[in-house]
C-alpha cells in the first residue's frame, strides 16, 4: 500500500444548502480537520486512509472521518466497528436508522440526525413515523407515565415502539428494564437482531458524543432538519 494517495472529491456539507467546505475553508472549529491524504512517510496511515476511503466510496471522506483521522488507529477501529454495523448486519435497516435517529434526538446530535433521518426514510420509515421519533418525549426522563402513554398511542408500529423504548433506556438510563428487553423478543426480534440493535444504539451513542463534543461540521448551534424538508428532498 506504500505510495497510495487518497484524493476524495471536495467535501460538501450535508447540513447547509450552499456553503461548501474543504480543507481550506475558513470556519470556526474546535479542531481543524486532518489532511485528506495520509503522510507519504507513514505506510500504516496510508493503509488506514485507504480502508476508510473504500468504505465511503463513491463518497469522499466525511467531516467525522477527518476529525477522527488525527488518530489514525482510532479512526481505523471506528471504521471497522461502524462499518460492520452498517453493512454486515441482518437487522432491518429502517429500524436501525430509526434507533439512530432517536439517539440523535435524545443527545442533541444535529449532524447525526441530518445524516441518518434521510436514511431512515430510504429504509422504509414513513414521514409520520420519523416525526414521532423526533417529537415524542423520553420514556425514561420527566413525565414518564405520560410519555409512555404517548408512545403507545403514536403512529409507530409495535416493533418501532419497542425500538424507541430500548433506545431511550440505553441512551438515558443505561440500565434496561426487564420488560423492555422482553418486549424486543415479544415482537419477534431474534437474538442476532437484538445484539445488532444493541450495538447499533451503543455505537451511535458513541458517534453522537464525539460529534457534539468536537462540534464536527459546526452543527451544535443549528436546528435539525425538519421531517417535511427531508421528505421533500428525497422526491
TrEMBL record:
Pfam families: CMD. It comes from the Eukaryota. GO terms for molecular function: peroxiredoxin activity. Residues 72-137 form the Carboxymuconolactone decarboxylase-like domain. This is AhpD-like protein. It comes from Aspergillus avenaceus. The lineage of its organism: Eukaryota, Fungi, Dikarya, Ascomycota, Pezizomycotina.
Amino acid at each position: 500500500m506504500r505510495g497510495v494517495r487518497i484524493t476524495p472529491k471536495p467535501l460538501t456539507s450535508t447540513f447547509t444548502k450552499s456553503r461548501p467546505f474543504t480543507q481550506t475553508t475558513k470556519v470556526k472549529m474546535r479542531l481543524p480537520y486532518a489532511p485528506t491524504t495520509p503522510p507519504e512517510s507513514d505506510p500504516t496511515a496510508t493503509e488506514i486512509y485507504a480502508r476508510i476511503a473504500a468504505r465511503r466510496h463513491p463518497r469522499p471522506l466525511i467531516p467525522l472521518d477527518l476529525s477522527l483521522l488525527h488518530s489514525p488507529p482510532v479512526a481505523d477501529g471506528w471504521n471497522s466497528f461502524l462499518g460492520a454495523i452498517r453493512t454486515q448486519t441482518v437487522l432491518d435497516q429502517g429500524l436501525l436508522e430509526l434507533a439512530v435517529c432517536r439517539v440523535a434526538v435524545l443527545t442533541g446530535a444535529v449532524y447525526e440526525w441530518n445524516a441518518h433521518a434521510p436514511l431512515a426514510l430510504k429504509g422504509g420509515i414513513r414521514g409520520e413515523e420519523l416525526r414521532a421519533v423526533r417529537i415524542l418525549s423520553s420514556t425514561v426522563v420527566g413525565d414518564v407515565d405520560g410519555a409512555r402513554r404517548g408512545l403507545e398511542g403514536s403512529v409507530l408500529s409495535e416493533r418501532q415502539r419497542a425500538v424507541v423504548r430500548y433506545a431511550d433506556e440505553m441512551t438515558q438510563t443505561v440500565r434496561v428494564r426487564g420488560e423492555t428487553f422482553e418486549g424486543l423478543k415479544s415482537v419477534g426480534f431474534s437474538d442476532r437482531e437484538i445484539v445488532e440493535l444493541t450495538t447499533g444504539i451503543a455505537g451511535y451513542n458513541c458517534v453522537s458524543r464525539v460529534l457534539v463534543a468536537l462540534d464536527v461540521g459546526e452543527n451544535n448551534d443549528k436546528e435539525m432538519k425538519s421531517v417535511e424538508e427531508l421528505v421533500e428532498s428525497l422526491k
